[in-house]
């Protein structure tokens, strides 16, 4: 099937729309400064999806330094998916998957070796999306979210992709 959306990098003109999508889709909301600071530091991994010229989804990431949890190799760079969302009426068309795949590709530009994220344990759609792409649950963090829900920390080696 022909893909009806396209991906491109975020630019600061998208900020209002991204804030809208973030608030419509997730309880974890951020200040303008937070979005803009991540864009300034990691522009390659802040990606938006457009359909008919309108932004309908985004993914925003941060590159962090930490210990490898797969094999002991000292400190490595990891790509952290901070936020990803697609507006409800545009879901189940492959946009979320395309955003995550593109973000993982772009993390390699920053020399990230792993990719990880936190996801609510009840968020089946997102957990299934990450599992489909090969992510595994590394651990569970009880009470991670402000409302007390726990998170799975899911991760994947980027070499595979
Ligand atoms: C998670 C989210 C980004 C997925 O976006 P999407 O564009 O609908 O995802 P895709 O169409 O690319 O789906 C890819 C795969 O994810 C899984 N998936 C997506 N939605 C699903 C659902 N409602 N139930 C079960 N699996 C689902 C499926 O494995 C799907 O593959 P398939 O279509 O071949 O079955 C979207 O549901 C969303 O924005 N949710 C609210 C915000 C959110 O929870 N973000 C993640 C925070 S960690």
Features:
161 residues, alpha+beta, 27% helix, 35% strand
Quick overview:
The protein has helices spanning 15-25, 32-41, 95-107, 124-132; strands spanning 5-9, 47-51, 54-67, 75-86, 114-120, 136-141, 151-157.
**Helix proportion range:** 25-40%
CATH architecture label name of the domain at 5-116: 3-Layer(aba) Sandwich
The fraction of residues in strands falls at: 25-35%
Number of helices, where a helix is a run of at least 4 consecutive DSSP H or I residues: 4
Low-confidence stretches: none
Give, in order, the helices and strands: EHHEEEHEHEE
- Rg measurement, Å: 15 Å
- What's the mean pLDDT score? 95
> Describe the biggest sheet?
7 strands, mixed
Number of strands: 7
Structural class: alpha+beta
List the helices and strands and how they pair.
Blueprint: E1 5-9, H1 15-25, H2 32-41, E2 47-51, E3 54-67, E4 75-86, H3 95-107, E5 114-120, H4 124-132, E6 136-141, E7 151-157
Parallel strand pairs: 4-5
Antiparallel strand pairs: 1-2, 2-3, 3-4, 5-7, 6-7
Bound molecules: coenzyme A.
């Amino acid at each position: 099937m022909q893909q009806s959306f396209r991906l491109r990098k975020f630019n600061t003109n998208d900020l209002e729309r991204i804030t809208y999508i973030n608030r419509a889709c997730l309880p974890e909301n951020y200040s303008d400064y937070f979005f803009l600071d991540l864009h300034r530091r990691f522009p390659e991994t802040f990606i938006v999806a457009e359909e008919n010229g309108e932004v309908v989804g985004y993914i925003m990431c941060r590159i962090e330094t930490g210990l490898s949890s797969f094999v002991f190799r000292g400190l490595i760079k990891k790509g952290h998916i901070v936020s990803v969302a697609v507006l409800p009426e545009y879901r189940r068309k492959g946009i979320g998957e395309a955003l995550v795949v593109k973000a993982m590709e772009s993390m390699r530009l920053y020399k990230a070796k792993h990719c990880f994220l936190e996801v609510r344990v009840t968020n089946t759609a997102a957990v299934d999306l990450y599992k489909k792409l090969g992510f595994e649950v590394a651990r569970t963090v009880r009470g991670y979210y402000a409302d007390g829900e726990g998170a799975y920390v899911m991760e994947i080696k980027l070499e595979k992709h």
